[in-house]
Amino acid sequence: xxxxxxxxxxxxxxxxxxxxxxxxxxxxxxxxxxxxxxxxxxxxxxxxxxxxxxxxxxxxxxxxxxxxxxxxxxxxxxxxxxxxxxxxxxxxxxxxxxxxxxxxxxxxxxxxxxxxxxxxxxxxxxxxxxxxxxxxxxxxxxxxxxxxxxxxxxxxxxxxxxxxxxxxxxxxxxxxxxxxxxxxxxxxxxxxxxxxxxxxxxxxxxxxxxxxxxxxxxxxxxxxxxxxxxxxxxxxxxxxxxxxxxxxxxxxxxxxxxxxxxxxxxxxxxxxxxxxxxxxxxxxxxxxxxxxxxxxxxxxxxxxxxxxxxxxxxxxxxxxxxxxxxxxxxxxxxxxxxxxxxxxxxxxxxxxxxxxxxxxxxxxxxxxxxxxxxxxxxxxxxxxxxxxxxxxxxxxxxxxxxxxxxxxxxxxxxxxxxxxxxxxxxxxxxxxxxxxxxxxxxxxxxxxxxxxxxxxxxxxxxxxxxxxxxxxxxxxxxxxxxxxxxxxxxxxxxxxxxxxxxxxxxxxxxxxxxxxxxxxxxxxxxxxxxxxxxxxxxxxxxxxxxxxxxxxxxxxxxxxxxxxxxxxxxxxxxxxxxxxxxxxxxxxxxxxxxxxxxxxxxxxxx
Amino acid sequence: xxxxxxxxxxxxxxxxxxxxxxxxxxxxxxxxxxxxxxxxxxxxxxxxxxxxxxxxxxxxxxxxxxxxxxxxxxxxxxxxxxxxxxxxxxxxxxxxxxxxxxxxxxxxxxxxxxxxxxxxxxxxxxxxxxxxxxxxxxxxxxxxxxxxxxxxxxxxxxxxxxxxxxxxxxxxxxxxxxxxxxxxxxxxxxxxxxxxxxxxxxxxxxxxxxxxxxxxxxxxxxxxxxxxxxxxxxxxxxxxxxxxxxxxxxxxxxxxxxxxxxxxxxxxxxxxxxxxxxxxxxxxxxxxxxxxxxxxxxxxxxxxxx
Lengths: 606, 306
Fold this sequence. Notes:
The complex is a heterodimer of chains A (about 600) and B (about 300). By secondary structure, chain A is an alpha/beta fold. Helices cover about 30% and strands about 25% of the residues of chain A. In chain A, strand 22 and strand 23 form a beta hairpin. Chain A is globular and about 70 Å long. Chain B is an all-alpha fold and about 300 residues long. Chain B has a single domain, classed as Orthogonal Bundle (MetI-like fold). Helix content of chain B is about 80%, strand content about 0%. The termini of chain B are close together. The chains are: A alpha/beta (about 600), B mainly alpha (about 300).
């Protein structure tokens, strides 16, 4: 039998908190065989990142303590002195992190940062190290590697920075690579590239990988074996294929049930609730389609026509106008009462700017936004305030979008008082009422935001948006920051509210699987334009535009059986909507595929 | 970058002109008649009028203003009652002493403050940190003239180690430098400690550690470079303090610099002398700011190329 590259036995990591040692990782054990990929999966606070940092011994020694055994190639890492451990880090075990934007030193060229790893561990001359760095940059497929050697990190996109991190990690040919959520901050097409790159390099280098993630889709795509963590403990360990097919622990079942699966909606016309999971047994109910909430006849609640929003780019000391971001370019769509229209696309495609332009958080350059037949872009003062009551927004970050010094009841009541729709007592009563509606006890209205979890805070934000009884809610990446199980609950709440209040949603998201679940219609955005719009079934079942297809193909599928299907490596970057001043946007023609399903005939660039 | 520099340099005369104009207005509106001050207490009315005509003080204000500006440009700082002539040569004669004091203060401030701050951060919440932090607080609280007097009392009067006044050689530089830089040492140390601790927590520092670098190398090679960006900014803003502080410290140590001369000018109401030195201070301040901005772009790659 081959010996494992890394063997973790009874790992317990504790932090000193207010005088007592609190374990964040408890009795975790697993092995990683040569060339094997092991995924550690769990939700936030499960201790998965702490496990990785414990193996690297990168936790602050003053207030943390690690016990158990971590054996790397026969050596117990916990028994090593700090200088001995330094010889292991970056040499035998390398690590890459979640945030490529902040993980590189902003004041050092990327070439120097990679060469540093080489020269630290190996007796190389500067010139030798630089030659090797160049070879590494080419291996992680950074275009024009030679020219980019001397550039600083701020000139690289997130995906390219993660490639630099990988090059740095691979520099000394480690036997184990620890990847801590390496693709979480990246767009889905870039995520696919980075996953494929890690796989490919792993094969070439005969390297083992410990992959930390919260995403079951990524697990299925990359891992041979999987460790499921819950509250610091490894609740289930086994081959990935077995864990997906016959999950034993209730939590694993719950986790799998909460994962939105692309393609799971085939044959359903309307949005569907996520299954409600019983955390004790892991069993779940079979969700049904929501009732028909859309009123197809009659006038739309929201009608956007030829909306264009551009941002000036000024540079130089005279703040000369040097270019424009064509964030939203001639976009038209409408939303019926009770309908959910999803806007999907990758970062920089303009989906959020549409939402912001509609409520006039940013000013559009041209076009019209009709809410119940009136153009919100042409309203001023009181009339604008009145119109804003009918369109409310929920934002991505529930931590940042509640005032930390305001009781949540007051936060919910504020829009009512501000618009003079209720007196203090009336607003309080309504706030309590709304809290109940979103599934929180009304007594909680006197608490402050920090006393709530992320999911609860997002419920509070929904309650605040509902206070003014809007017809349309713009949900801008509203569930993106939430763990899978919480995400499912919040979406179920939104679907319930749609049924009871006949709300229309403009659901802005980058997550194709969630979009498939919640929307009636979908608009796919690319570089500020809608490239394809139509009924949800048509977009997912019969995608026409090359960009839509690319987007769908990039979504990780939570099905380990499809792991063999290797993607071709590519390193396209997400195109930029920054244009020169004299750029004239071409007039787009749309082709009618089926009733309501339109595709842009300009397919290039995608 | 070059364009930026050219722009900043071109700005200096403009700002200087603005300041000179404001000064002119202030000096013209303070109470007291310049002609009678120059003439002295015993002068007759005729003598005063005579001096007024001689100094051009009877001309319209606009004419005086233009003459003043043209004079400044050609090196004519006007009539100084102290020197009984154009004070420029006397001012310039004293510039080196002030520059020497400022330079030695900047060197001491960086050479002491920076390492102290880094050490404080490296030993965060352990005894070296507590020790350095206490000294820092003490230095921030002590006024420079008081510190100067204590230094004189101990090092010159009691121990007789250092000369108590004047510029008489390398030894005489020690006490004025300490008095002038004490506050800045403390400021730099405190700022450095905070910034270094903050930077040590950042992701890129963790990346450096994950590469296998030890704490020390992570600190010196990665963290310090990034920490310098905010430190230089704050230190640059404090440079004006050096100019202001030099006035008091120079008087205390009878230092033959322009700060000392400024106080003399003020005490005898020698308007043109005061005005001339103030203009010099302004230009000096603008130059220091320029140097700080250049330093700033050198250490911050994001500013070098967009």
